[in-house]
Design brief:
With 192 residues, this protein is mainly alpha-helical. The protein is built from six helices and no strands. Belongs to the RER1 family.
Length: 192
Amino acid sequence: MEGVASDAGSAVAPLAKWRDEFARTFQYYLDRSTPNPVHRWLGTLAVAAIYVLRVYLVQGFYIVSYGLGIYILNLLIGFLSPKVDPELEALDGAALPTRGSDEFKPFIRRLPEFKFWYSITKAFCVAFLMTFFSVFDVPVFWPILLCYWIVLFVLTMKRQIMHMIKYKYVPFSIGKQRYVGKPAASSSGSVD
């Protein structure tokens, strides 16, 4: 009996070692991609293009695409929302600064950009893998799903934009804000 247990343990050890090495290598490349958002998003765009091409060529898996669209919409809401919702904060007695003497609170996302990117990329990869299994190819009339998703997107974004206007926050910052001093006066003393 002991021989059987030791054989099973020795068979599991190489698999666990390989899994740990793979996880470590994957994390290494994930960490290296962090400071390169443009390259990361271009890679995700390539994965999305491959998925769209696969769905187009197969002419199916519209339910998978619809589920992917709903999931991406959910991620987008988290990406555009503040970590601390001002509506809930107002109920607690705390509020956004309204005077110059109030404390400045920078916009912090509920879902950071890196996690947003990583979740979208994983979602496209999982959806791509699902297109290889016929059980997920449920026959539907895809234009109805597309219209419903568009209506859902418009209504959700309208609500999100109204929330952004009401509480005066902008979830995007393009580059670092730079302050430039006044131009130096010319040192020539000539008068025209």
